[in-house]
Design goal:
elongated, 4 helices, three-stranded mixed beta sheet, alpha+beta, single chain, 3 strands
Amino acid sequence: MPYTKAPNRFEVVLDALYGELHFNIAAEEFKAIRLWREVVGSHIARVSEVEKIVDGILHVKVKNSAWRNELTFRKQSIIHQLNHRIGSPFVRDIVFK
């Protein structure tokens, strides 16, 4: 039997599985963490790392205080972009450590 369908990316399969199992909150947490690099860009992604997300609050570890200050100024824009890509106002705040 020939293989006629292109394989799906793992993240697409995982999103669909979470939706079917009604793990919507976990799926949105996964999306927020996965989208971090896309939203902030590769330069900022190199100096920051998402640690966790709890109750819509994203906890991000930052390389130093200068980057923490810079990202604090950009916080609202980052939250807006994350929520726009997720498709709901899931991320309420970001804590930079």
